[in-house]
UniProtKB/TrEMBL annotation:
<dbReference type="InterPro" id="IPR013249">
    <property type="entry name" value="RNA_pol_sigma70_r4_t2"/>
</dbReference>
<dbReference type="GO" id="GO:0016987">
    <property type="term" value="F:sigma factor activity"/>
</dbReference>
<dbReference type="InterPro" id="IPR013324">
    <property type="entry name" value="RNA_pol_sigma_r3/r4-like"/>
</dbReference>
<dbReference type="InterPro" id="IPR007627">
    <property type="entry name" value="RNA_pol_sigma70_r2"/>
</dbReference>
<dbReference type="InterPro" id="IPR013325">
    <property type="entry name" value="RNA_pol_sigma_r2"/>
</dbReference>
<comment type="similarity">
    <text>Belongs to the sigma-70 factor family. ECF subfamily.</text>
</comment>
<dbReference type="InterPro" id="IPR036388">
    <property type="entry name" value="WH-like_DNA-bd_sf"/>
</dbReference>
<keyword id="KW-0731">Sigma factor</keyword>
<dbReference type="InterPro" id="IPR052704">
    <property type="entry name" value="ECF_Sigma-70_Domain"/>
</dbReference>
<dbReference type="InterPro" id="IPR014303">
    <property type="entry name" value="RNA_pol_sigma-70_ECF"/>
</dbReference>
<keyword id="KW-0804">Transcription</keyword>
<dbReference type="InterPro" id="IPR032710">
    <property type="entry name" value="NTF2-like_dom_sf"/>
</dbReference>
<feature type="domain" description="RNA polymerase sigma factor 70 region 4 type 2">
    <location>
        <begin position="105"/>
        <end position="156"/>
    </location>
</feature>
<comment type="subunit">
    <text>Interacts transiently with the RNA polymerase catalytic core formed by RpoA, RpoB, RpoC and RpoZ (2 alpha, 1 beta, 1 beta' and 1 omega subunit) to form the RNA polymerase holoenzyme that can initiate transcription.</text>
</comment>
<dbReference type="Pfam" id="PF08281">
    <property type="entry name" value="Sigma70_r4_2"/>
</dbReference>
<dbReference type="GO" id="GO:0003677">
    <property type="term" value="F:DNA binding"/>
</dbReference>
<feature type="domain" description="RNA polymerase sigma-70 region 2">
    <location>
        <begin position="7"/>
        <end position="69"/>
    </location>
</feature>
Amino acid sequence: MSRTKEFQELRPLLFSIAYRILGSASEAEDAVQETWLRFEAAPTELRSVKAFLSATVTRISIDVLRSARVRREEYVGPWLPEPLLADPYQDPERSAELADSLSMAALVLLERLSPLERAVFVLREVFDFGFPEVASAVGRSEAACRQLAVRARRHMAAGRPRFQAGRKEREELASRFFDALREGDVVGLQNLLAADVSMVGDGGGKAPQLAKAVIGAQNVARLLASAFPQMALIGVTGEPHEVNGQPGAIFRDRDGKVLHTLALDILDGQIQTIRTVINPDKLGHVGPVADAWAINREVRQALRPTQ
């Protein structure tokens, strides 16, 4: 098998590792490309191509994450991962676990870990690498990696919800949510939201965004029921679509350009969190990006009373 073919077969795994470590599709793609360059320049004989490539993309991702964390500390407003519409890596036997590790909620939790903890958790808990492989990938002893894994699991477990909805339940609830959203049905929306639901937007200072998280079923329902019908007046449409393995939607302007994505966290029969990403820098991989500022002005103009 040629080196190129070996790499292409493992590319989905490499991207999936990098994305979970970095929370950025564009940075994950860059890490995978750099991995290819190092693989291309590596000695002809490798004991295990998978081990070499996995270790290489992990080390590159750790380095990128260390520098990215400084930028994220200075980020304008809440930071959310770049939305991913489909994970290229599919393992039918572990699809449920993989989908969970891809969710916005899981990636936000991973942000609390150190780069090494995050890498160890992704390799060990998500992709089931053995500790010898994990140790080789991150450049630490097996004993140290076991300690890192324990700390990472403890942090992740503390932040996870106690009850999670099944796939069918999530899809049915999401369908009702988007029906109520299109109709501007405040009561219908409120009935689907947890009492302490939060709605968080990520504009990064580069697009209109919520000044802070909106908390409470009544507040979120009123905001949604007013905002989305207003945008519909100028041709903005919502296309239900899985986002990071969870129910969500892509919103587009009248020309089909991406305005923002929306992802729902559903547990115990209610929507717990709504996360929207409108930062144009995080949407380019989804498709051509709309001018959110122009749309905001157009909405205001459409709502202005006529003289």
